[in-house]
Amino acid sequence: MLGHIGFIMDGNGRWATARDLPRTEGYKEGLNALKRVLNECAVHGIKVVSVYAFSTENNGRPSQEIEAIFKVVTEFNRSYDGDMKILYMGDIDSLPDYVAESVYFIEQKTAQNSGLTLNIALNYGARADIVRACKLAFDHADFTDSAIESRLASASLPPLDAVVRTGGEKRLSNFMLYESAYSELIFLDKLWPDMTENDVDAIVNEFESRIRKFGR
Ligand code: IPE
Ligand code: IPE
Ligand code: MG
Prior knowledge:
By secondary structure, the chain is an alpha/beta fold. Helix content is 41%, strand content 16%. Magnesium ion binds next to loops.
């Protein structure tokens, strides 16, 4: 049963460029794709969806592009009115105030919601998260797997069953590295803004066809 799925939402810029649009248009369309994907995940009974929205490495992009991504995220946070529970992971405090405020606003507003949990990785890097968790565990002189795991940003979430990357690249790009140790990996050539409900159905079928062995 697919309980927690992660999406590396790649290919937004290429989607826009292919249409002679500025790359920034790809991020707006990416949000529409996310809404389709989330609706279909809920139909399949998936409880938690983690999405990679902005990596710490993405800070190296042109400022205009970074601002466009932050604007899409902020507008979503300010306007969302559904029943999902929305969480963020990443270095939120280092983001511009208007973005960070919108993050805290929506986390608080949706905290008691009973729908699907949407966990958004924003200004996130898995290595930094693992280092931070290790330092906390070290402070408590606790060096076990569970001590580290319980201090990751994803600690409150169920195990990550699958990671899907769109856009044709076959890498994790610093997304949930610890959590994905036994995740099923699914790579799609499709660009993120082209994702439909049918793609989610195919992902669920693919996941169910995999035999998970966990080393046994
Ligand atoms: C991924 O889309 C989303 C973010 C980095 C925010 P890209 O912007 O990397 O799109 P491509 O890979 O260049 O097409
Ligand atoms: C990963 O995509 C980050 C997000 C989807 C937010 P990138 O486009 O930044 O990854 P690389 O540079 O191709 O590895
Ligand atoms: Mg990319």
